[in-house]
UniProtKB/TrEMBL annotation:
Flavoprotein found in the keyword field: yes
PANTHER family: EXTERNAL NADH-UBIQUINONE OXIDOREDUCTASE 1, MITOCHONDRIAL-RELATED, NADH DEHYDROGENASE
Protein name: NADH:ubiquinone reductase (non-electrogenic)
Regions of compositional bias (Polar residues) in chain numbering: 453-464
Stretches assigned to the FAD/NAD(P)-binding domain: 15-342
Ranges for region Disordered: 448-478
Amino acid sequence: MSQPTTTAPPTGRHRVVIIGSGFGGLFSARALKHADVDIVLISSTSHHLFQPLLYQVATGILSEGVIAPSIREVLARQRNVTCLFGHVDAIDLATRTITARTLDSTQEYSYDSLIVAAGAGQSYFGNDHFARYAPGMKSIDDALELRGRIFGSFELAELAASSGREQDLSRLMTFVVVGAGPTGVEMAGQIAELSKRTLKHDFRRINSKEAHVVLVDAADQVLPAFGTHLGGRAEARLKQMGVEVQLGAKVVDVDNDGIVIEDKDGQRRRIEALCKVWAAGVQASPLGAQLAEQSGAGIDRSGRVEVEPDLTLPGHPEVFVVGDMISLDNLPGVAQNAIQGGRFAARQIIRRLKGEPTQPAFHYKDKGSMATISRFSAVASIGKAQLSGFIAWLMWLGVHLVYIIGFKSQITTLLHWAVSFLGRGRGERTSTEQQIYARVAIEKLGDRFTPRSGLSPTPPSDQSAVPAPEQERHLSAG
Ligand SMILES: Cc1cc2nc3c(=O)[nH]c(=O)nc-3n(C[C@H](O)[C@H](O)[C@H](O)COP(=O)(O)OP(=O)(O)OC[C@H]3O[C@@H](n4cnc5c(N)ncnc54)[C@H](O)[C@@H]3O)c2cc1C
């Protein structure tokens, strides 16, 4: 690893560093468009990811490019922003610098104001090894891997039926989704639709409609954040679609071939399933813990930083934390919180630079919550209104279309939705071997996998990087 190089500010203007190109990062940068500042937006992904539609990439409705435009392109016309690709490893509040790594090089950036919007990752509640068998839904890599696993399971089932291995069919055609929040409900609903509508004419040996989709959650309700009425509606609709909903069911183990569940009475049982999806639990970026340690701020169980009411760190008015990384007044981990928080932080910086008084507190405007279950069916909670069915689904379509970044992406999305929802086709079913296996293969290489600036990883120095036979089994099946 090279020594850090320090980047000098291009002008003598106030330097704002923004960490993250998600909702918080993008909307804070945009809100600083007319400010007399130099902005460096640094992110470990070179795209802005519209996470709410990840499940549509995983189930073949949308391509990844539509929901993840290049952040450089999105901000191309904003002259005061420089977008850089890098993973921030360290923030030093005392020296006002951050250290970021890009492949094998390290850079340091100094700031006058810092906006930290590094979001949250998947949480496996201390069982990180589950990720190997049950990918989460947080990134484009996750969605593409899941796409490969979902469509791949049907392929393997067809193969098993063709070669007389009927005993494997149940495992290959059982899909378990863990977590009955919006993402889990959306995934379960979409896998059911795939099997019942999209794939029904595509196979010769299996009947795709016989796929068994199971949605499990330790809680007693589907969509707990939506209340019992809408949660009940969503559950009823899922059941109508053939999804088996298992509540009060805690996942205690996951392996290549299935999942172990502990019911409320303490009894354990197993569901044989090759394809598992993890849609339960989030953990804020580890940068939150660094900020908390250095500033004395509290941190909650999900790693979120207890910020001041104006989204700054205690004793550090120059550092704002926004979006999924914050713990404040039970604000939800949703896009609107990140968007509004990012804009608020930007406006505070502008006020300070103009010598105007700043706002003492951030006030979140709740614009409501929505979750879609299947085509033509969604639930929406907006103020006192509790909507479900077709009207809620139309609202869901409209809201998501508005927030997709870029006119091109909006038009493409609309066309793909017409194909998938009015017809039964899905134009984005392509999956490749690398999509399915790359994460596990890189994980197995461990320290031997060293990305280099030349874009070619260092080859492993010995044969130990080659999976042993029992490891291959995980790769080939999962
Ligand atoms: C599958 C799914 C479905 C969702 N559906 C909805 C929905 O329907 N409605 C809704 O309102 N919300 C939804 N959400 C939640 C919503 O997407 C998040 O609340 C929102 O994205 C949070 O914005 P953020 O800016 O805090 O973080 P993110 O959008 O996650 O952005 C974090 C950014 O930080 C970057 N980053 C992370 N670590 C580092 C680092 N160390 N160095 C540099 N960069 C880093 C990442 O690359 C990313 O660009 C969903 C989330 C998921 C995962």
